[in-house]
Amino acid sequence: MDSTRLEMYERLRDFFVPSPILDEIFSHEEDFAILLQSWEELRQLKYQEDEIADQIAKTIFKELDIEPDYQDEDEK
Predict the structure, then answer these.
(1) Which domain holds residue 41?
(2) Residue 35 domain-assigned (yes or no)
(3) pLDDT tens column, 4-15
């Protein structure tokens, strides 16, 4: 995994996107291309990295009709 992919993966994990979902997205080049395009479009709109990850995470949750698991956050 190159540094761009790793950074995106880690940022999305920070916003509670489950690893199995990210693994699926990152393992299919077409899916990753869509993710990368969306990421770059938000960057061009002057969003900060955390804002980009937050927006994309919300989209993933909405599209998959799942709720984020904040349980790990409570344990910190």
Answers:
(1) 9-70
(2) yes
(3) 899 999 999 999
